[in-house]
């Protein structure tokens, strides 16, 4: 009787932290909109919209970025 080789169990994926998700989306957003001048197109980008959906948890991250250098986060901050 032949035995089949066993496949290693897939590594358990550790869920992204809010900051990791924010940074991943930020990187994509900046890479795909850095050449644009239209604020409408910049803020309509899917990654920007997903960042917005993360809610108030990302506000401290945005504020930290704004302290370090000018950024476009002003459009995302809650009123």
Give the SSE order as H and E letters: HHHH
Largest sheet: none
What is the mean predicted local confidence, pLDDT? 86
Estimate the strand proportion: under 5%
Structural class: mainly alpha
Helical region count? 4
- Rg (C-alpha, Å): 19 Å
How many angstroms does the end-to-end distance come to? 70 Å
* Percent helix range: 40-55%
Global outline: elongated
Point out poorly predicted stretches: none
Write a brief structural summary:
The protein is mostly helical and 79 residues long.
Summarize this structure as a short list of keywords or feature phrases.
mainly alpha, 0% strand, elongated, 4 helices
Protein architecture, described:
- 51% of the residues lie in helices and 0% in strands.
- The protein contains 4 helices and no strands.
- Helix 1 packs antiparallel against helix 3.
- It is mostly helical.
Reconstruct the topology from this structure:
Layout (H helix, E strand, L loop, with lengths): L17 H16 L5 H6 L1 H8 L5 H10 L11
């Amino acid at each position: 009787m032949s035995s089949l080789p066993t496949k290693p169990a897939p590594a358990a994926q550790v869920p992204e932290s809010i900051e990791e998700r924010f940074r991943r989306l930020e990187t994509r957003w900046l890479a795909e909109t850095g050449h644009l001048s239209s604020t409408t197109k910049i803020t309509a980008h899917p990654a920007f919209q997903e960042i917005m959906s993360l809610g108030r948890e990302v506000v401290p991250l945005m504020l930290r970025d704004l302290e370090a250098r000018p950024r476009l986060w002003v459009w995302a901050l809650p009123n």
